Fold this protein.
Amino acid sequence: MTAAALIKRPIAPLFLKPEDPGELSDEALCGWPVELLEELPGGWRRIKTHYGYTGFVHGDCLTGDDQLPAWWAALPKQVVTRFTADILDAPKVQGGLVETLPRGAWVSPTGPAEENGWLPVTLCDGRTGYTKESFLGEVLTTWDPAGEGELRESIVRTALSYLGCQYRWGGRTPLGIDCSGLCSQAYLMNGILIHRDARMDPAFAMKPISRGEMKRGDLLFFKGHVAMYLGEERFVHSTGKGGSDGVVINSLDPAAADYREDLATGILEIGSVFVGQGAGG
């Protein structure tokens, strides 16, 4: 079977196998469209995300109304850009909590901002409420290689905004994020789809480059790990290594105090989405 569905929970865990507790492979966020591939016993569903990743999710994380995906697709969208955004039932801080959404979740604005920046919004399951307009940004689904320099800086800023977040295997939110979740989410928030796992996939835009070609925002691939290059031999990544336990900055330079020898000597590939795009840096 193939059908459209929507993620209605703030964070829907995608499992490697249809078993809970089980190994987390990814997280899909509220408002995201998914493709329903298969219904399984026990209420499980196998789905495919809009960035091409598949996994198993509980059916109660998905909208049950077949009409909602088409309705939602036609609405304007904005994305949560703060770590979290509360959706309240009234345009005031004393309002009742409708939902708390993580960065990356989608909502639909239903009118202009009101006093003190309160914006009326609709969630993908039809619930309504208010959040601060400053908590939201544009949902980007395309990118222009002609703006390479600015785009690289935006990707880096997005990745650095997760500094200090805990490491979570399969995570992709400020509540917990893994290495490929950090890199893929930083690109996704800037309109670029890359492979979710810690390797390059020829189906996506990222292609191998030499070490001499790497610039800010390019990715460093290691065995089972990926990091984002910041320039000057430094990189940001999410790591489960003791003493870091999350998103940190480390160095490829042996003279630096935060040198990671195991990674500096273990680079397998370097990737860039800008190679062959004909854009200047």
In short: The longest strand covers residues 33-39. The mean pLDDT is 95. The two ends are 45 Å apart (CA to CA).
